[in-house]
Amino acid sequence: MSAKRNLSFWEMFNLSFGFFGVQIAYALQSANISRIFATLGADPHSLSFFWILPPLMGMIVQPLIGKYSDRTWCRMGRRKPYLLIGAIIAVLVMVFLPNAGSLHFSTRLFLGLNMAMWFGLFSLIFLDTSINVAMQPFKMMVGDMVNEEQKTTAYSIQSFLCNAGSLVGYIFPIFFTWIGIANEAPEGVVPDSVKFSFYAGAAILILCVLYTFFKVKEMPPKEYAEFHGINLADNKQDQKKEGLFKLLKKAPEAFWTVGLVQFFCWAAFLYMWNYTNGAIAVNCWGVDMAVKGAAASAEYQSAGNWVGVLFAVQAVGSILWATIIPRFKNIRSAYVVSLLIGALGFASVMFIHNQYALFVSYFLIGFAWAAMLALPFSLLTNALEGSPYMGSYLGLFNCTICLPQIVAAATGGAILRLVGDSQPAMLLMAGVYLVLGACCVYFINTKKSN
Fold first, then answer.
1. Residues in the chain with pLDDT values less than 50
2. Long-range contacts of 439-443 (CB under 8 A, 24+ apart)
């Protein structure tokens, strides 16, 4: 294995700068999708079902992206071709998705959804899938090109850019409202403030990705093999033999034990993305979500803008807590503490009726998010050190993000009924899930794979 020189700060920054734009798109999706579908006429009990297909597509696409990018060597690079394709598709979808309501189709079709909701649903599928296709190569390039000594620094830079992008994406709707863009629209039509947010996010996304695409030069095959101690000839033969299911059988124990924690964490955050808008509309703006047309009210749309502000506060909490996590002597202790603090933040939302007091809740939720962004990948990549299948395993590991979202989305309507149709109570349930995730940290095995 050849020693790799240390990269400068700006070389590591360039590796991850495109992540800033990708995360703006992801933040816009997570903060506004429930608002968009509620505006289009979705019933609160079926709202979570709109989130099933995107992670399902992620479970199919991400392992394939990892597998084929492990084998890709071309003039553009190894991971960069997938990065560029994912970004282009995401930009196109971001332009069309917020215009779903402008189709003016109200006829109920299959499963009781109108044409606008079906258009929005398929747009969401493509958006979530393309964002993940664009996102994964950044994680893989750090694993490919940064030595072990600098990986913590490189992932810290990536985490900072990730949360900075989230911050920008979350505040876009309220910013455009502040400068005079309409935040209200006819029933069934998405407000211009949301549309302009998606347009701006799409422009920044493609510019940031192009910056990384042209600034970063990936390792050629020979240099990559020397850096990672891989025999190119043997590796090519092995990759032909090893399918994804075979790799899954050989996955290190950390893959499964960290995945168990991931299950509860991502289910919790799906509830946050689904129900925050309705929860604070009820608690802080007094909106009765049982009334037909409530989602078209000025109060509901104002709550939708405030969701972006709260998620921005969450991003700030995540940025600050990410600087504290490395100070823990034990990585599992950092994981447990982060998730428990986040659980407290979630639970408090149910009992708060002042929109500004919610800053504390979402600041604390950011602690859990910081841990979820960094610690699972640190634990897994350490267990996979030197593996020629890093991309394949990271793609498979994405299933531990997608599967819990599918389960949470499929059961969300039923659980909402169990808690008395209370969307604030769904945030309390998210807190319970994080507590369960913290308990499962005990089972994580940190031994390296053979």
1. 1, 111, 237, 450
2. 440/257, 440/260, 440/261, 440/264, 441/261, 441/332, 441/335, 441/336, 441/339, 442/332, 443/257, 443/260
**How confident is the model at residue 447, as a pLDDT?**
62
Question: What pLDDT was estimated at residue 45?
Answer: 61
pLDDT digits (tens, 9 = 90+) for 66-79: 777 777 777 888 88
Residues paired with 74 in a beta bridge: 77
Long-range interactions of 73-79: CB distance < 8 A, separation 24+: 73/220, 73/221, 77/216, 77/217, 77/218, 78/144, 78/218, 78/219, 78/224, 79/137, 79/140, 79/141, 79/144, 79/218, 79/391
Q: Is 291 left (phi over 0), alpha (psi -120 to 50) or beta?
A: beta
Please tell me whether residue 427 adopts helix, strand or coil conformation. helix
pLDDT score of 189: 79
Residue 77, classed as helix, strand or coil, is strand
Q: What is the DSSP string of 344-377?
A: HHHHHHTT---TTTHHHHHHHHHHHHHHHHHHHH
Q: What are the helix and strand counts (H, E) for the chain?
A: 16, 0
Tell me the whole-structure pTM to 2 decimals: 0.75
Write down the pLDDT at residue 234.
Answer: 54
CA distance 165 to 214: 20
Q: How many CB atoms lie within 10 A of CB 411?
A: 13
The angle formed by the CA atoms of residues 48, 339 and 332, to the nearest 5 degrees, is: 130
Contact 412, 48 (CB under 8 A): yes
Q: How far is CA 22 from CA 26, 83, 111, 321, 424, in A?
A: 6, 10, 32, 22, 29
Which DSSP string do the residues of 296-325 spell out, in sequence order?
A: GSHHHHHHHHHHHHHHHHHHHHHHHHHHHG
Q: To 5 degrees, how large is the angle CA 353–CA 357–CA 358? A: 80
pLDDT, tens only, 18-68: 989 999 998 888 777 777 777 777 666 666 666 676 677 777 777 878 777
DSSP 244-266: HHHHHHT--HHHHHHHHHHHHHH
Look at residue 1 in the predicted model and tell me its pLDDT: 46
Task: Return the pLDDT at 209.
Answer: 93
The region, left, alpha or beta by phi > 0 then psi within -120 to 50, assigned to residue 112 is left
- Could you tell me which residues come within 8 angstroms of residue 302 by beta carbon, excluding any fewer than 6 positions away? 183, 285
- Full set of structural domains in the chain with CATH: 9-443 (1.20.1250.20)
